[in-house]
Specification:
mainly alpha, 73% helix, membrane, 135 residues
């Protein structure tokens, strides 16, 4: 019974967090990769799949327990520790994903500012300034 409750809470929680990351991450990545929508979609999907694999792997590994459950109080105490731990791990993974997104954004912005600035050309009808004589 406790295992079923644990899975009934943690799996939907994992799916909710992953969908939120996917939805908002997609918007963010589309802004970063303005010229490459397909790349933004692919990076978003890869991050979501990685999130699912790590999260559900942790949920599954954390499923086992050596605690003796005798009554409803023991069930709730065990579930509170397990679900609380899973929620904390999901929160840490969420922060990790945000840091990844921010790193991608920062790298993209640095590349955009590192592009050479075009030299202004003289206006039509105005002559270009004379070059300086060689020393």
């Amino acid at each position: 019974m406790a295992y079923a409750l644990y899975l009934a809470i943690t799996v939907p929680l994992t799916v909710l967090v992953a969908r939120t990351l996917s939805r908002h991450g997609k918007t963010f990545l589309e802004d970063v990769f303005q010229d490459k929508q397909a790349l933004a979609h692919s990076v978003n999907q890869l991050l979501v799949v990685g999130f699912y694999l790590v999260s559900l792997g942790f949920v599954t590994l954390f499923l086992t327990s050596n605690d003796t459950v005798l009554d409803a109080r023991d069930v709730f105490e065990m579930l509170s520790v397990k679900v609380g731990t899973v929620a904390l791990v999901l929160g840490v993974m969420h922060v990790g994903n945000v840091l990844v997104f921010n790193g991608i954004r920062r790298k993209h912005l640095n590349q955009a500012t590192a592009r050479p600035v075009p030299v202004p050309q003289p206006y039509p009808g105005n002559p270009a300034p004379a070059p300086h004589p060689a020393p």
